[in-house]
Amino acid sequence: MGHPVPTAPNFLSHTSPEYLNMNEEELEEYYQRIFESLHPLQQRFLRSHAADVISSSSRSSRRPPSLANDPVYDLPFLSLVFSLLRLLTHALFSALCNPLAPITDFTNFFYSLACYSAIYLILYLYQAFLLFCNLCGFQKYIVSISQRFFDGYGTMTWGDHTMFENKAPVISAARSFLSSRLDDDSAETHVGPIEQEFCVEVAQSILLMSAILYERDQESVERAFEGAGDVRLNLLRSEEQMLKAAADWNCQFTSIADFQTAKGPFVGAFFDLEARPNPFMVIVFKGTSFQDISEWIVDTTFNLEACADQLGAGCAHQGFYSSLFPSASAREKPSPYLRIIETIRSVAKHVHDEAGIPMNLFVGGHSLGAAIATIFYARLLESPEDIGPHTVLRDGYCYGTPRGGDSSMASRVEYNLAKPVNFSRSLWRVSNRSASVNVGDIVAHLPPGLADQRSCRSAIRAGSSFIHMPPSEHPLTLSRAEIDRSIDSDRSDVGLD
């Protein structure tokens, strides 16, 4: 490549005496050294993200409806009230447009009414619990426990705080698939069923990449949005765990954009410029933090929004869709979607200019992040020219995906996946059924909907029920031991210890 490979940054453990004894000036020098060790592309993307944050912060006094210091999101109980009022307004408008809905759409009407009532009651009780914890000062105890027993990792990984240790072999085992060339099936005659290849190693790798996003340091993000100190270095500080993981996995990481609020989900990318035959990039979306009520509100915003302008047909979950494609009135900078496309095109152009080869693109996310990732993947299927001529769209791996659209939108996604040019591509929807084979992940059952089965869609009025995308879940049952055995066998195949 044209750029020299930067020296790997020397990351310090946040529990080490060397790090703990640093003053603010020394910390700034430490993060400046890390910044200088990054690849020039990473430096450029970080500056661009910082510029977006500064732009958002400069408008905070005018209380914009999107990023940074939205008063509704600053008051969680009030945000729940506003969310409930929006739902009631939507329900009233729907009732005026279709007053016979309780009769003509009986099942969906009363099913939704019962489910939404129960979910909002649970949300209010959950927010009361979080408020009680804050009043009792539990947050400082959580930080102390995290530093003492869980190596500084957040509560989302307390169940297995060693999950990121020694995972370079997992990424290495997936590298051959991530960097492989996509077979062109568009001109072939298929006489039998078309088989998509679910790669366990890739699924594990993208799950790790999605999980590490939860380790973003929220305090540093908030300082960046408040304009305290060097915004660029505050963002870098917030991403230290991701950068460290990427270095261990022999790839690079960059954050790209924030959604909805400074405290909410965001999108980043892991990429490997040296992989062959094709370099690869994985766009990953952060999911819902269990302690952040604003993200749960996005999850449970049950209004559908017309999305034909971006996705070709139907309606999408308003919270997920507006995160990626904010309305013109809420947009104070390029939309998150455009920022992602700029990042993809920039890296792909760099790869093509230096090596004359294309770059593979994978997509992933967990929970709320999986829903946004699904909408993002649906847009790329609808408008493949967005990513440019030097990028090859590959598979999407989404974990614990909530329902994100109506039957018309889901059918459009199926239509695009059924095109011959997409025969080798799959949007995999992976659910955790380790606790319950029948129920699985409860988040994957939200919002409530009845249109997952194609045979049921004709009986349900368009825009009245949520559905998964893709509607069918690929059946795959693997125990953790079976997955570990597959990784062990692949280690011997690729010469890993």
Automatic annotation (TrEMBL):
GO terms for biological process: lipid metabolic process. Keywords: Disulfide bond, Membrane, Transmembrane, Transmembrane helix. Residues 282-448 form the Fungal lipase-type domain. It comes from Puccinia graminis f. sp. tritici (strain CRL 75-36-700-3 / race SCCL). This is Fungal lipase-type domain-containing protein. InterPro entries: AB_hydrolase_fold (IPR029058), Fungal_lipase-type (IPR002921), Sec_MonoDiacylglyc_Lipase (IPR051218). It catalyses: a monoacylglycerol + H2O = glycerol + a fatty acid + H(+); a diacylglycerol + H2O = a monoacylglycerol + a fatty acid + H(+). The keyword Chloroplast does not apply. Belongs to the AB hydrolase superfamily. Lipase family. Class 3 subfamily. The keyword Membrane applies. The chain crosses the membrane at residues 75-97, 109-132. Gene3D superfamilies: alpha/beta hydrolase (3.40.50.1820).
